[in-house]
Protein 1
Amino acid sequence: MIDINLKLTKKQRVLNALAGEDVDKPPVSNPTNVATVELMDYVDAPFPDACRNPELNAKLALTGHTELGFDSIAPYFSIIQESSALGCEMQWEQKDNWPTVRMGNPIWKSISDIKIPSGFLEHQDNVAITRSINILKEEVKGEVAILGKTMGPWTLAYHVFGVEPFLLLSIDDPEETKKILRKLKEITILFGQAQIDSGADVLVIPDHATGDLVSGKYYDDFLLEIHQELVEDLKVPLILHICGRTVDRMPSIAKTGMAAFHFDSKNLPSEAMEAVGEGIRLVGNINNPETLYSKTPEDVRQEVYRALDSGVQLIAPECAIPLKTKIENLLAIPDAVNQWVSNKFQS
Amino acid sequence: MNIRPIEVIEKYGRCIELISMDPFFNEITIGLFFKEPNITVFSYSKLDGVSGRLNQIRDRIVDVSGALPNEANPHQATFKCGMEGGCCSAPLRFALKEAVTKDRELDLSQGIICKDLRSNMMIKVNYEENSNGKIYTVSGDDNAEKPIIRYRAITNGLIKYGGFERIDNFSFRLSCNERNDKIVNLLLPLARNISATEESLASEDAAGQMTTQSLGFSAN
Amino acid sequence: MIKHEGLKEEFNYVTKPDEQEHIEGLFASGDMLMQKIAYNLITGQNDQVGILVKKALDEDYAANIVLDDGLIAGMAIVGVKFRDNIIFVPEVLISARAMKAGMEHIEPILSASGIEPVGTVIMGTVKGDLHDIGKNLCIMMLRGGGFSVHDLGVDTKPDDFIDAVMEHGAAIVGMSALLTTTMPNMGTTIEAFEDAGMREEVKIMVGGAPVTQEFADEMGADAYGANAIDCVQKAKDFSTTKNGT
């Protein structure tokens, strides 16, 4: 519920919204990232260095609060940090592109290969995140919500086994697949806890069991229970992120006990709200490649309004922002929320 | 300069185009902003020499697009029409790309001409003033199987990328009804093959997007 | 006609009349052993497919009959189910593996008997692109369609395509791109064939999520494959023309 008389810090706003409690206005967040090439220049923290150096990382992450007016900041920009620390072959790319794992050369073949390397948390690419969270915690002094991120076991499995081999295994030997996911879950928890210990207020769990590759039933069979367990294992609000068309699996996602689900623009806000009912809050779902990237602030406003009118509790782009997104479109998001609240409650 | 993003937008207007990595200057990001009547070349980078590079880009934009430099600001330019209502802004994304990423002269000594991509024709765009105003007309040496189809297609391309006004199937004028051979010359190569240009633009737009395809989490 | 009970249930997923007619035609002989092979392929039972194919060959079924009436016919239903989102990638992968298990018995016979493969195809994902799931599905379908396929993998340079065509005497090249940023490399590869004076010697087809018919035309490709089934059809169309054999 919105109570405009409340006086909340940005962090309180985010945490209240995730808990389903009253807020003064819907928070603007981005569970997946805020990083653009312009902001990289602004704070002199370009990719890929900003992904690998905690000081640069923190500078870039902070701009989400200081320059864009979002209610949260998120230092983990991509989805590959811990996979790099596990030893995956990496393609770090350059300033205007995302680092990726070379899944064509997977590091593991079977459950017996799964080993958390010694010094895993001290690896450069994990420290880039945990140390950045330390720095941000000092900097924001509790004013702004810090969102950590730790890959779910399904995404980790794609990275370490390769997509095709893992999908074959999932159908050849579902029980073995579940065992693998349980073992990989240990990595999710280890890295997630490290971020909580560093000061993260919330954890985002991307776990890419998307409709592009697997059915909704797969979510029920392989991930629902694990996601429910993560809620017990990681004692901060959790936001699940799955890209793509996910309405078929949203009723199950609503049973995880996670605080929120970050959903994609391929799902209408109204149908997503109906699918999850009262079970989980929703974060999203401004379209990236068209609206945020190619259209105008007015188009952004319309999508924000549509999400808010449907009852979406936290407003965000649908996924990691395209790196060449223009800042004026990002500024339009908190502006639109403020305007919507003003129209609705103050006129 | 420590100007903040919100101040940049207030001062310089909306961002028309970004070049994410300047290949000739430390891979800084170059933005082209528009707030009537000026376009402004801008970068958030604080490296030494940035101002000089922005000035250089501004001068290149003037050279390739027929814009008029703002004598009071080395990073700004405008067009003769004052860019009222966004006039002359449509082709600027191409002007910025040409100015930042290419290092060549665009020669007008032979007029506005270009070899066709889909035939052996030389395409020509002629200027005249008549009752319809300051008109550009697409023609060529007819050295193709169906030259009329090519002239029409190229006219469509020029109108699309220039934001021009159509007069007929082969003629157009600038919305401000001014003469600007440079801007037409800039767009002519792109107009020869709209599909290829569109694909090229889409390819640039796709860089830096995170999707299930770019992550490798999709079968198609 | 379809007599196998399990296969009848699978056939229920084929709802378009023209596809029903086509697939019923594939099972026209009514042979139960062939239908068992098809059913086991659809359900991904690769060991069973291997056993049944061997049994068929031992019982003097012609290798090309087993290929057409058993394996290819089964794969046709898999293709429809995948396209219609009844099954997803894991299910297709196990069917493709079952196809491969059957082909292990058939390929040596086809080669020894002097029966030529329908054609030879070089497949690869273009330079700069590391994605291969779609390409791999096409390869499996092509092999099921009787083609000999050489997989160049991902991030394939134009020269590698050219070298492979020369080495294997291939007349068909298939290129895949999953990223809009790598699509232009299809054009680069086609230009490389032109520069090498080999453009007339091959038919080039392209595919992948961001690729369109229009793009294929612009790049100078001979065909665009909208999906794995279409890829096979385009390859077959090439094979019935002079350059395709």
Note: Helices of chain B lie at 5-12, 50-65, 92-101, 147-162, 181-191, 194-206, 212-215.
Protein 2
Amino acid sequence: MDNNYLQLFQYILSGLANGSIYALIGFGFAIIHNATGIINFAQGEFVMLGGMLTLFFLVFCGFPLAPSIILSVLIATIIGVSFERLAIRPLKNAKPIRLIIITIGASIFIRGAAMLVWGKDTHALPAFSGTDPLYLAGATIMPQHLWIFGITLLVIVFSRIFFNHSIIGKAMRACAYNPQAASLVGIDVKIMVMISFAISAAIGSLAGIIIAPLTMTSYDVGIMLGLKGFCAVIIGGMSSGLGTVMGGLLLGLLEALGAGFISASYKDAIAFIILLLILFLRPQGLFGAKETERV
Amino acid sequence: MLKVNNITKTFGGLTALEDVSLSVSPGSITGIIGPNGAGKTTLFNIITGLYTQSAGKVFLEGKNISYFPPEALAGLGMVRTFQNVELFGQMTVWENVMVGLHTKSSSGFFGCAFKLPRQIKEEKLIREKSMRWLDFTGIADIARMRADNLPFGKSRLLEISRALALEPRIILMDEPAAGLNSRETLQLAAVIRRIKELGITVVLVEHDMDLVMDICESIIVLNLGKKLAQGTPREVQENPEVIAAYLGED
Amino acid sequence: MITEEKRQVFIFLIFALALLAAPFFFRESYLLTVLVFIGIHTMLAVSLNLLMGYAGQISLGHAAFFGLGAYLSGILTTRFGLDPWLVIILAAICAAVVAFVIGFPILKLKGHYLAMATLGFGIIIYIFFNETVDWTGGPSGLPSIPSLQIGTIIFDNDLNNYYLVWIITLCVMLLSINLSQSRIGRALRAVHDSEVAARVMGINAWFLKVQIFTVSAFISAVAGSLYAHAMTFISPASFGFNFSVELVTMVVVGGLGSIYGSFLGAAILTVLPEFLRVFEDFDVVIYGFLLIIMNMFMPGGLISGLELLAQKVALKIKKKRPSDA
């Protein structure tokens, strides 16, 4: 196959893989935002925790891969819920600026704690099913890519079912639209909020785990990943569904193509320029519905 | 003074206002009444520049102000108060009223930072004038109190003082009597009458029928987004359609 | 009769005198260096406070303007040999223009979106500093920045830099205090408390936010220039997200809306890492912890805590002397 096409395919592949991760992280933002109205700046840190914790269990504790993953997701979820109970719930009605500062504080705290515990080195997580590449029409696909796409798809399908067909999921959506009405019909908003944090932390940490074999992990991957996930969800219009997925994939693609054809060192800047452009020109996102004015 | 022509406002699928027209004569006290959901606050928000109408025009003293934002309307002499009093909670009562004089003063960043003589003079004037408006509504004694510590009745009066400091030609009040007891409502009525004496046109949206019938010279009735009637209190009270609309209410 | 205004002037004079006299008590060079940093950080914190505390607009990218001032000063003096004093003004104006232009779209955003946008902006500028190696020297930094000079006085030692930095910082503080008590200050606080009511009162909220953003950027850039000339070496690491967060922490810890609070916050956060040198990497954790705790329990910052303390003390004194009441 033509070399240029191959290169393009590689860029697209890695772009889509990264994009899936951004989409997953974006989900986390959307779920919390839709349940509480706040943006959890610490979301990126859950992603970081996923990779780092798995590494810890795998390498330092010698556990096999699957239990390590499960344990990490569990611990990240517990941390997420604790954060909600301790720092967010008491300030339910505070001004947004206070909540922003608190979630920023939490993200710094978690990041700093990770640095203390695990140091500043970057680590590679071993790929789930080895590193033997698969060949598709002459191009190389790593098995990890398949894991990423597969798991992302699973999460999407699962969340679709959850939010549209389960009682809890529907209750959470009700809370997002109108917390007062929801509590009037007997939905415990506090629990819904807690669940939203739990789900976001779980998905976030999972995202961190599946990308770690490809892009290394360290104590400070959370910032960039978190921001890019945020970018994805903004493009997607804060939806906890297909919009964010499209947003993430689009971002990943643009980033990979930009890095490949324009400049690799400005790769990160691409995501933020896109973020600013979207916020300036179409803050409701490319795929979100236009907000109607509240009476 | 104020003319509203064929205002229609739709929110998505909901038609909040349909082809509403009205006029307010200068120096009068006009009331806008109607059952809940009639569209009164929506109309208010459109007139005062917070919402954009789907169709129709608004004129202030002959000038087309249809798409003017609130800050521009302030410059033309239009001011409003809010149903849920919107005070500057962290500032004192006095400072709140001083903000009302923003359009009547002009010192900028440079003048204020360097305390130029012009700014010092202007600041003194702002303080004096705002104190007079506090006297007008009788809350000068609590001038130094933090605004969000005020009892509700006084916070309403503060909002009025602040609005008057702008030296408006027309003041629109959104349910000024809501949450006031009967003594405070009488106090409010007296304040409104004194505002009229200053030559300022008053328009109010209100639910308190006693107040409306007492002080308004002209009343406009809205129902389900449409104008039902306009006339003197007596005419409106005797209008069979109005009575029918309010059946079961006050 | 002691009017409020005279009291304010008195407090400021005491504060200024204390700071101007401090070197006589802190002859030791190390402490002076720390104080110089406190000065620069205070200038930055005050500028950010105008935006966050008064206008209520959060900025997580303020290190960018600090960096712009530093790099413009560094580059224009080392590579083009321009007069450093002129460059300080040019750099500040440049930063102000950037702020003005980007301010319009950015300040249409509110709350979290504004926070994210400023964060993104800050990171873009940081990447720019890091990648334009030909101009900025990239991650290895920009060395050999000349010291400032007035006649025969060269600002290449701690004592001279101390006075240079603090005289300018005190001026900035005084101007900010004046501003906060004036018509503009009230307008800013009005926008913060109730933007809709502020607009109804004729304040063009959007434009005012852009203006204060611009002023804040100007001051931050001046701080950056002073920093560059004092350190004679700058690198991108000082102007990234971490520092932006540090600045926000200073403002929050000191007290949003209090100019003296910004000094407190800057002082504490400059000194803390010095104390924690032993526990080198703890500073990040502590910043995070501080942000959370301060915000939860003392949202008004340390200044509000101190004021409360002062009130309680004053009350106790009153109680002890009922005859003087």
Note: Chain A has a mean pLDDT of 83.
